[in-house]
Amino acid sequence: MKLSEFLTELNNRISAAKISGFWNEAMKKQWLNNAGERVCNYYNWKALEYAKFTKTKVDGEYYDYPDEFQENSIYHLEVDSKKYTKIKKWSDYQACRINESTKKVFCSHNGFYFIGPTPSEADLVIDIWGIKKWKKLVDNNDEPVTPSELDESIVKLAFATCLQKARKRNGALDERREVEAPANPRIEGSGGILARMIAREEEEPAGGFIGQAKCSRWD
Description:
By secondary structure, the chain is an alpha+beta fold.
């Protein structure tokens, strides 16, 4: 959906619920963007996997995260076509560096990603794969980065915000449950919209990343 369509759908639900308040279009756009960001960050959706590349600098240990990526979302990195192992904890990465380990590792930290051992050559290709972050919807023709299958969840969470502000707390809770209720592992198809979508994604074969990184570059 485009932003204009999201607004129309949200307004239809507000009218059907017969609630009113001093809610202008800017506020409704904010509700939709908040909902979209929540849905976007809820899970590493396959549709949001994205690849980029840049080049090494001599003795360059750390590099800026691409603007499109969610924080700490890089899950695969190669330098000069050699795979590096992801280290989640910054303290573990520091320990590797202090011990002068020759193991090829990388770590995300404070808006940067760090590579060890430090490259000794310039202009080696760094290929990285991460997850796109939510891009704010501003103009009526703007479309979300998330797949269309998540549109309903975005509308429902935005509508839940409206219900909460109208003091319809039970209704707001019901809308959120329909979206975010966790799955019962013993019951197939249980849980909210997002849980069911996650279950479907996890049943699908894992997607590959080979050959995707060279689609774009940033400096």
